[in-house]
From TrEMBL:
<keyword id="KW-0378">Hydrolase</keyword>
<keyword id="KW-0645">Protease</keyword>
<dbReference type="GO" id="GO:0046872">
    <property type="term" value="F:metal ion binding"/>
</dbReference>
<dbReference type="InterPro" id="IPR042088">
    <property type="entry name" value="OligoPept_F_C"/>
</dbReference>
<keyword id="KW-0862">Zinc</keyword>
<feature type="domain" description="Peptidase M3A/M3B catalytic">
    <location>
        <begin position="209"/>
        <end position="586"/>
    </location>
</feature>
<dbReference type="GO" id="GO:0006508">
    <property type="term" value="P:proteolysis"/>
</dbReference>
<dbReference type="InterPro" id="IPR001567">
    <property type="entry name" value="Pept_M3A_M3B_dom"/>
</dbReference>
<dbReference type="InterPro" id="IPR045090">
    <property type="entry name" value="Pept_M3A_M3B"/>
</dbReference>
<dbReference type="GO" id="GO:0004222">
    <property type="term" value="F:metalloendopeptidase activity"/>
</dbReference>
<dbReference type="GO" id="GO:0006518">
    <property type="term" value="P:peptide metabolic process"/>
</dbReference>
<dbReference type="InterPro" id="IPR011977">
    <property type="entry name" value="Pept_M3B_clade3"/>
</dbReference>
<dbReference type="Pfam" id="PF01432">
    <property type="entry name" value="Peptidase_M3"/>
</dbReference>
<keyword id="KW-0482">Metalloprotease</keyword>
<keyword id="KW-0479">Metal-binding</keyword>
<protein>
    <submittedName>
        <fullName>Oligoendopeptidase F, plasmid</fullName>
        <ecNumber>3.4.24.-</ecNumber>
    </submittedName>
</protein>
Length: 600
């Protein structure tokens, strides 16, 4: 592990996906996929009510083979684009992959639609009972989507229009927002410090600065740019909502816009409603925390600029990348040696892009390509404690992916809410390790930062989802809704969220415009609330059961997407349809806030 200390932030090696992108390898691979689809299309005569289980399973495996080939080349394009969203050549490759993927999906659509809509109930059940158990829940879920599925020609039209319609608009949003430059003006007494930031992540790292002037300047620089571009970015979002409403509510007849995401996540509307209700009813827990935090910072009332203000006056020294890796690896080793080995394999294979660079995609992600290839992780590492937590979070995703790599590609990916389980658990493991090795003063600082993170990943994400519900409802009922009305809606959301605990200035009415999930994946954000509250419950279980808990936890992760989340969790005595379950997570947050007070 000593060699890890010498590592610097670097780039990833995508040669596991495409060995020589400058050759004709990509076009050859596209031709190979086309040939596989040609062969698959010849299976249409087999699709009768009397198809044998063996033939049906062979068709599933053949379609998975196509999916694997396709995922390798499309992932290569998307990962190259994440490195540099300003590259015209890579943007062209992404467009080419999108067009090819749409054509491939349309040619394969007949099999999916036959199973969902054409096949009768009795024979569908016969096949479900006969297939290997790993596919059972997946196929039951597929059949549950039948009533929202259109006929083949309509599905093809939607797929084709999405490439130049909604997908193109989202690409414009990404290229615009990732290319923004931010004029930073910090007021220190009579002096003004001016800087220009070309990297949003570097700017956003200052919202956790120990200097109030830096926190204010960073938020003002960020929000001013989004305000100036609110016309275009807001219009893209309005069209995102209209497209979602027209396709899913009007055409497919989903009961509500969020029901689309819930069904995709294989989770009932009731479970999500229970989650959001409990989050809303517990908003006072964090409001009280912010009042206490203001006292700890010796200020009368927090302003929104200072939500993430650390309980320290001195600037914490930046942590080197190698040291950060060592901290995470040691924390994971303490939980289970296999977790450390998985992360070390990512480092060894150069599957991590961690260095800061202009036009790189902001934030962080873990991308699973196919079961036989280790996932890729994107970080924007700048040496902050938050960056180390993000590292643990994304490596948690990677561990989840690798533990489920014995599953076929169709069921390797967990549904979104469970997808956040390993990532948040990874952060908890790291935080526990850090808290064990510090003095009382530093423990107080770290505990406050952990509670800040609970706010950011539970309450903030739940209120993001509540804003989306209200925004989709407003635009769905009135297509003439303006961007300014959405800004007012967002401010109302913030005022409810913070109550009287915090002053929210008017520039935060534009904050929603820089939340990419609103554009990329509507209603994604509740998965973070779900994942965090679930993990708080699981982590308390781990504390009680110690090493006896680990096999249960690994069983949850290794299931990937092969099980219905509610059923999988019920086997571990967790009922996500009950508000009392979600309340346990908030009870833990309350305990941590009390622990923080006791350290004063």
């Amino acid at each position: 592990m000593s060699n890890v200390l010498k590592l610097k932030p670097g780039e990833w090696d995508l040669s596991h996906l495409i060995k020589n992108p400058k050759s004709e390898e990509i076009d050859k691979e596209l031709n190979r996929i086309s040939s596989l689809i040609d062969a698959f299309e010849e299976s249409k005569p087999l699709l009768t009510s009397g198809i044998s289980v063996n033939d049906f399973v062979k068709l599933i495996k053949d379609s998975e083979k196509i999916s694997e080939h396709l995922s390798k080349i499309t992932s290569y394009a998307y990962l190259k684009y994440a490195e540099d969203t300003s590259s015209n050549s890579v943007a062209g490759l992404v467009t080419k992959m999108n067009n090819f993927s749409t054509e491939a999906a349309n040619r394969l659509l007949f099999f999916d639609l036959w199973f969902k809509k054409v096949l009768d109930h009795n024979n569908a059940n016969r096949l479900i009972e006969g297939v290997p158990s790993v596919y059972k829940d997946y196929l039951i879920h597929e059949r549950s989507m039948s009533k929202y599925t259109l006929n083949e020609s309509e599905e093809k039209i939607i797929n084709i229009l999405d490439v130049t319609g909604m997908n193109a608009l989202i690409k414009i949003y990404d290229r615009m927002s990732n290319g923004f430059e931010f004029d930073y003006v910090e007021k220190r007494g009579k002096k003004k410090i001016r800087k220009r930031f070309t990297n949003k992540e570097k700017l956003l790292s200052l919202v956790r600065s120990s200097k109030s002037s830096e926190r204010i300047a960073s938020y003002k620089a960020l929000l001013l740019v989004y305000k100036r571009n609110s016309g275009v970015l807001g219009e893209i979002y309005l069209n995102r909502i209209l497209n979602w409403h027209n396709e899913f509510v009007e055409l497919r007849k989903f009961p509500t816009p969020i029901s689309v995401r819930n069904l995709s996540n294989n989770i009932s509307d009731d479970s999500v409603t229970a989650l959001l209700n409990v989050c809303r009813s517990n908003s006072k827990i964090f409001q009280q925390y912010f009042i206490e935090k203001a006292k700890m910072l010796n200020i009368k009332k927090l302003e929104r600029y200072h939500l993430y203000a650390p309980l320290k006056s001195q600037k914490r020294a930046k942590i080197e990348y190698g040291k950060a890796l060592k901290m995470v690896l040691e924390a994971f080793e303490g939980f289970h040696p296999e977790f450390r080995k998985i992360v070390q394999s990512l480092i060894r294979e150069k599957h991590i892009h961690s260095k800061l660079q202009d036009n790189k995609q902001s934030g962080a992600f873990c991308s699973t390509v196919i079961p036989s290839i280790n996932p890729y992780v994107l970080l924007n590492f700048d040496g902050t404690l938050r960056d180390i937590s993000t590292m643990a979070h994304e490596f948690g995703h990677a561990i989840h992916s690798v533990l489920a790599c014995d599953k076929p590609i169709s069921v390797q990916h967990p549904p979104l809410p469970l997808a956040e389980t390993a990532s948040v658990f990874g952060e908890m493991i790291l935080n526990d390790k850090l808290l064990q090795n510090v003095n009382k003063k530093e423990k107080r600082i770290l505990l406050a930062e952990q509670i800040d993170d609970f706010y950011a990943t539970i309450m903030r994400q739940a209120y993001f989802t509540m804003f989306e519900i209200d925004a989709h409802d407003m635009v769905g009922k009135d297509s003439s809704t303006t961007v300014d009305q959405l800004c007012t809606l967002y401010m109302n959301n913030l005022n409810e969220q913070f109550g009287r605990s915090m002053k929210v200035t008017n520039d935060f009415r534009y904050e929603w415009l820089y939340i990419p999930h609103f554009y990329h994946s509507p209603f994604y954000c509740y998965a973070y609330s779900f994942g965090n509250l679930l993990v708080l419950s699981l982590y308390q279980q781990f504390k009680k059961e110690s090493k006896n808990f680990i096999p249960k936890y690994i069983n949850i992760l290794s299931s990937g997407g092969s099980r219905k989340p509610e059923d999988l969790l019920k086997e571990n005595e967790i009922d996500i349809t009950k508000e009392s379950f979600w309340q346990k997570g908030f009870d833990f947050v309350s305990e941590q806030i009390q622990n923080l007070k006791n350290l004063e």
